[in-house]
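Posted in: Protein Modeling Q&A

I'm a second-year student putting together a small comparison for a lab meeting, and my supervisor asked me to include a predicted structure for Delta(14)-sterol reductase TM7SF2. I've never done this before, so apologies if this is the wrong subforum. The sequence is pasted below exactly as I got it from our records. If anyone can share the structure token output, I'd also love a short note on what stands out.
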Amino acid sequence: GPARLLGPPPYLPGLEELWSPWALLLCLTWLGLQAALYLLPARKVAEGQELKDKSRLRYPINGFQALVLTALLVGLGVSAGLPLSALPEMLLPLAFAATLTAFIFSLLLYLKALLAPASALAPGGNSGNLIYDFFLGRELNPRICSFDFKYFCELRPGLIGWVLINLALLIQEAELRGSPSLAMWLVNGFQLLYVGDALWYEEAVLTTMDIIHDGFGFMLAFGDLAWVPFTYSLQAQFLLYHPQPLGWPLASFICLINAVGYYIFRGANSQKNTFRKNPSDPRVAGELGFLGAMSEMGQLDFQGSPHPAMCLSPDLETISTATGRRLLVSGWWGMVRHPNYLGDLIMALAWSLPCGVFHLLPYFYFLYFTALLVHREDRDERQCRQKYGLAWHEYCRRVPYRIVPYVY
Ligand SMILES: NC(=O)C1=CN([C@@H]2O[C@H](COP(=O)(O)OP(=O)(O)OC[C@H]3O[C@@H](n4cnc5c(N)ncnc54)[C@H](OP(=O)(O)O)[C@@H]3O)[C@@H](O)[C@H]2O)C=CC1
Ligand SMILES: CC(C)CCC[C@@H](C)[C@H]1CC=C2C3=C(CC[C@@]21C)[C@@]1(C)CC[C@H](O)C(C)(C)[C@@H]1CC3
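Accepted answer (user: helix_wrangler)
Welcome! Here is the predicted structure, written out as tokens:
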């Protein structure tokens, strides 16, 4: 039937449609497969940020390898008769099974945290209020031997699950209508690029606040395992039931929007990561200038300095902070204070446009994501203000807009 916003839904699924033991089995098999791929030898083992007890945890960088191996296994399965196009019919019980799994998993994590030493607990999530702590997560990096649950869940099962659901929807559309629509190809292609990128640059996740700061509780477990695969695939789900005519000229324009978004997103994230890893990398720093180079060599200590020191370089300009780390104030990070969010939002728009402009549902991701990034930006801003003090004020003065130039 037509997608509509006003009026009650014509049909609501009964509770019995939510529960299927097969869906739970499939969900657990998927987690088991991804866990097995996580344990395979990795091209690199990276060290995380320094912890409270001065130690660093080690993480395997093999997420992209897991994506490729999953694609090979699914390809083999489909050619051997695996009915992937049956997946779209199971989405509701699968989403329920994933939510149930996240819930039980978070309960176990809560219990595990009771045995953890105080140094292993997250800064938030230890208020003593059972529900609040269960939701936010008590332990920072819950592990069994070297298997890190939060790092494992953050990317692989959810992101790879998302593109697998998209693929199943594309195959089912081909079976229903003879071939997949152009709109379905675009949505699949754009989102595969996004997921491939996240897994290729997996190491960058080690410096996100989710890994460094947040405990692992129900919010993150549910977000990673259930929310991401089942709501991020809404555009492809919409297209299966509401085919949209899309010509090549408009499709090319949407591709251009996605390319611009990706260019900003990747450019900004890579610029910051390169700079953080090696501030004197010629791609970001050119020549550092005296103050920058001295602080880099530990010759200058800005601790307690009332004014942030300024460092000019021919390529990118930076400001020094009391912590010894510097902040980029030109390049992408001189345009707005969160250029990566801007690129991400432009891409989110490009994922919705192939679905036309007459329905709100395909724009759900764009709207939710705007709210998520505004909230995330606010949290990050508070943390940076605390961490960098005066230097952050100076950065805000030099770069007044947060996400969208001249707007916000
Ligand atoms: N699709 C999705 O659902 C989601 C996608 N994302 C995406 O993930 C990516 C990562 O986002 P997120 O983890 O929120 O954080 P960011 O990558 O934006 O990192 C913020 C940190 O960068 C450093 N920083 C800020 N300004 C500067 C500067 N001028 N120069 C140098 N360093 C600076 C600070 O840390 P420090 O100084 O300590 O290095 C700050 O805490 C983004 O592209 C975002 O869009 C995020 C959440 C959800
Ligand atoms: C309504 C829900 C309870 C809200 C859940 C929020 C989560 C969906 C997000 C919190 C942080 C996320 C990140 C990504 C996906 C969404 C969640 C889990 C991310 C893996 C997406 C891809 C990016 O490149 C990234 C930097 C790897 C992201 C990390 C944070």
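A couple of things worth pointing out for your meeting: The chain has 15 helices and seven strands. The CA atoms of residues 51 and 57 lie 8 Å apart.
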